[in-house]
Specification:
- The chain is an alpha+beta fold.
- The chain has two domains: 131 residues, Rossmann fold (3-Layer(aba) Sandwich); 136 residues, Tumour Suppressor Smad4, CATH 2.60.200.
- The protein is built from seven helices and 20 strands.
- Strands 3-2-1-4-5-6 form a six-stranded parallel sheet, with helices on both faces. It has a six-stranded antiparallel sheet with strand order 8-7-18-15-10-11. Strands 14-13-12-9-16-17 form a six-stranded antiparallel sheet, with no helix packed on it.
- Strand 10 and strand 11 form a beta hairpin.
Length: 301
């Protein structure tokens, strides 16, 4: 991805979290700030529609991809996930303003938004690339569904069914059969999401890896494993009454026995712009509370 010089960030798209309190006010204030700084502003269609904003031009994600130089996302990581997957084919860099609770991807606190953006739009930023996964569901030799995932692709049993049995192949090599509640296939970005809560490892975003994390496996010897991100992965449903596959929990497909999910790294990447002093370890310390220590009577314990 090639980032334009700062003076060429002429048109900036704004994307907002629909349900956040005060989001319309914050978006309009941000838009006025950008216009006063000499930029043109457009609003993402669903953001404008749900918040009933009519002050600025409105564009669909595909139109944004073809016509803007930068997108700013105001919300949480879920908001970022949705728009990032849609803009990935167009190489539009993203800045995330955190109005959510965690904010691993939307890393600029809203109270620091204006000074951070002033610096970043003047060229004082750093660019980070993140990989995606793409998957397709094959049934009887025919593709029935597909999707992109920024965090993870999850194969899971149905709510009322028992364990799902999976046959996993990597680069045409049989890896294992697994009985479990499901399997998470995660990018390094997704290693801080569902994969982490299921016991998976943290992967630095710059690692070229894909992590497999079983969900409540029947055999305790089924442990998380990281494979190269050049791998071609096939997951076959060997036995199940009810199962599904989801892409970032935002698109779903129902599965039956014999279905195969083919997964590989996408050719698209997502570019994040961070403040100049940003670093991943600071984010981990803050979000994982690694900087907190137990105290007794004010003393470290």
């Amino acid at each position: 991805m090639t980032i334009k010089p700062p003076h060429q960030f002429k048109t900036i798209a704004l994307v907002g979290k629909f349900s956040a309190a005060g989001i319309a006010r914050d978006l309009l204030a941000l838009a006025r700030f950008l216009v006063d700084a000499g930029h043109s502003v457009v609003l993402e269609q669903e953001t404008a529609q749900y918040l009933e904003l009519t002050d600025y031009p409105v564009k669909q994600p595909e139109q944004i991809g073809h016509s803007v130089d930068l997108a700013i996302v105001l919300g949480g990581d879920g908001t970022m996930l949705g728009i990032a997957r849609q803009l990935a084919p167009y190489q539009v860099p993203l800045i995330g303003i955190n109005q959510g609770r965690l904010g691993f991807m939307t890393d600029i606190p809203i109270e620091q938004m204006y000074p951070a953006l002033t610096e970043m739009l003047a060229g004082h930023h750093q660019l980070e690339h993140r990989t995606l996964l793409e998957g397709k569901v094959i049934r009887d030799g025919r593709e029935i569904s597909n999707g992109l995932a920024f965090n993870d692709i999850v194969v899971a049993r149905g709510a009322g069914s028992g364990m799902v049995e999976l046959k996993v192949t990597v680069d045409e090599h049989f890896m294992y059969n697994q009985r479990s509640d499901g399997l998470i296939i995660s990018t390094p970005t997704g290693s801080t999401a569902y994969a982490l809560s299921a016991g998976g490892p943290l992967l630095h975003p710059n690692l070229a890896g894909i992590v497999f994390v079983p969900i409540a496996p029947h055999a305790l010897s089924n442990r998380p494993i990281v494979v190269p991100d050049s791998s071609k992965i096939v997951i076959e449903i060997s036995a199940v009454r009810e199962a599904s596959v989801n892409f970032d929990m935002q698109s779903f497909a129902n599965l039956i026995m014999g279905d195969q999910i083919h997964i590989e790294r996408s050719r698209h990447v997502i570019g994040f712009l961070h403040p100049k002093n940003w670093n991943y370890y600071h984010t981990l310390r803050e979000k994982m509370h690694w900087n907190e220590y137990p105290t007794v009577n004010g003393q470290l314990h």
